[in-house]
């Protein structure tokens, strides 16, 4: 019998908090059970196992990150939107490293849960909407999305791993990287497949 008050949401939040503390790759069901003060078996009334929990953490994180990005970029356009978007992304990755990791690696997610989760869809809408402000159309939009994700994820991952040991502050390089991205997006090279809208 499931413990009173224990829900899939509570298990997911406890798992997300632990993932931030110990790392998503080190998260175990036993740790989550201890955090919640229950036996391991009690968790399985709410989540199917560790992979299911990781999928739920990924969806939770996608929702949280998207809400922060939406709030940061609301009413902004062009470079202001790009900087607000990037700063919200980086801030989330720094504050919630385990949850952030869950949004960046392949995890098998229950299709029913994924279909109900607004975060991933909203993230795509926000990213494409911000880039349309630069006048980009497909296939350039997809290429630009991949460039931004690669840049943001690469930067925050290297920063988290201590990869920026140079005496120049990482923040200065972050600002310059966003300046460069803005210039590139304003002067996106044309392609045979598609140009600006």
The total strand number stands at 0
The helix-strand sequence is HHHHHHHHHH
**Average pLDDT number:** 92
Q: Please state the structural category.
A: mainly alpha
Major β-sheet annotation: none
Terminal CA distance: 58 Å
Strand content: under 5%
The level of helicity is 55-70%
- The radius of gyration over CA amounts to 19 Å
Low-pLDDT stretches:
none
Shape call = globular
Query: Number of DSSP helices?
Result: 10
What report would you give on this structure?
It contains 10 helices and no strands. The chain has helices spanning 8-22, 29-36, 40-43, 50-73, 78-95, 97-102, 111-116, 118-132, 140-160, 170-186. Helix 1 (8-22) packs across helix 2 (29-36). The radius of gyration is 19 Å and the shape is globular. The N and C termini lie far apart (58 Å). The mean pLDDT is 92.
Properties at a glance:
single chain, 10 helices, 68% helix
Outline the secondary-structure elements.
Layout: H1 8-22, H2 29-36, H3 40-43, H4 50-73, H5 78-95, H6 97-102, H7 111-116, H8 118-132, H9 140-160, H10 170-186
Task: Summarize this structure briefly.
68% of the residues lie in helices and 0% in strands. It has helices at residues 8-22, 29-36, 40-43, 50-73, 78-95, 97-102, 111-116, 118-132, 140-160, 170-186.
